[in-house]
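Narrative progress, year one. The postdoctoral researcher (J.K.) led the effort to move from monomer predictions toward full complexes, under supervision of the PI. The following entry was the first complex the group processed end to end, covering 437 residues in total.
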Amino acid sequence: MFENYSWDTAFANFMDSLEVMGLGMGGVFVVMLLLMAAITILAKVTGKKKDNENK
Amino acid sequence: MDAFLSTYSGLEPKDFLMQLVMMVIGGLLIYLAVKKDMEPTLLLPMGFGAILVNLPVSGVLTQHSDALGEVTGIIEWLFDKGIEVSEALPLFLFIGIGAMIDFGPVLSNPRMLLFGAAAQFGIFMTFSLATLLGFDLRDAASIGIIGAADGPTSILVSQTFGSAYISAIAVAAYSYMALVPIIQPFAIKLATTKKDRKIRMTYNPKNVSKTTRILFPIIVTIIAGLVAPASVALVGFLMFGNLIRECGRLESLSQTAQTSLANLVTLFLGITIAFKMQAAEFLRWETLLIMGLGLFAFVFDSISGVLFAKLMNLFLKNKINPMVGAAGISAFPMSARVVQKMGIKEDSQNHLLMHAVGANVAGQIGSVVVGGLILAIVPTLL
């Protein structure tokens, strides 16, 4: 690895890694936000069902 | 006698010396597992496996001889079939892990999911740093994923990318998971003040319905699968295990997945990964570099979780103790315990455990999602 080190290649890979960072962090936050929304909806729906059962 | 000596005829003294060093490293892993209780379920099989594969002309590796032709070695066969061809072993382990996870704390307090995302930032920082050090995109991504604090994900991603450093990555991932109680307090203290660490949080758990518990693993799989199709294997097997646990009809299967299946797969996973601990592949400077990068990933995962909690506090009325953010990594339950212990140390009445468990469980989802995202994104850049 060190014998073939090239700053140009490393820098090009670094720029690509920044793109992966942006897409990756964006992607994981999107998944988590969607899950938060799904849990909130589920809690409302299944909570209401429980309330009705209690009545 | 001549026949015996001819077995070793092709062995160079330098190669033998390197194999001896690897056997000492194998012994060190066994020592750490037995004496220091560092992830013994993985480090002990890996340590013994390192000895097996580094014995000269070892029978656990495929050998060629004029008389017998090719004789298949069991560890090489296990690696080929169980990891290289199908990644079956880490995926089977995910079923067991899924069956062990109680998502209750995060279902009760869903905002903890955000820490499961924020604390993955160290993975990407390490990825970028590794590229600057000269690793190509595949290897750098595989090294970054050490920060997932999730051994099976690290193994799966590095194997899918065909990284030559899979054994060093596995050793780093499992070693640092065992060292979470040492690494995280250091990282948390770097990013917090005493005042931050004293922030009290009350715990008001909401009831989580059975329907929610059953639907959650299915929803996670669908959402993660739509955002990152490559994550379906990882997330799907994890959530399959969790569905078995939560459905309430498969108690026997759930127990089997949590105990027998997880134990059996762990047993074979460690010794199989040792295939890549052959001297020529393991004894190189890159291994040391990977160990350093793995530490960097763990430290910056924790710091990014803490900083994200501080950012959230700018907008929240009820403040979050920033230490909880650091629990958003996948090392469960060690990370949650570290946060609880540090909270109690600052204020004996401040119990952060359940909040931290919520973040920690979210970290388990986050790490597999990031693993899938990396598997999906990196190939588009190659």
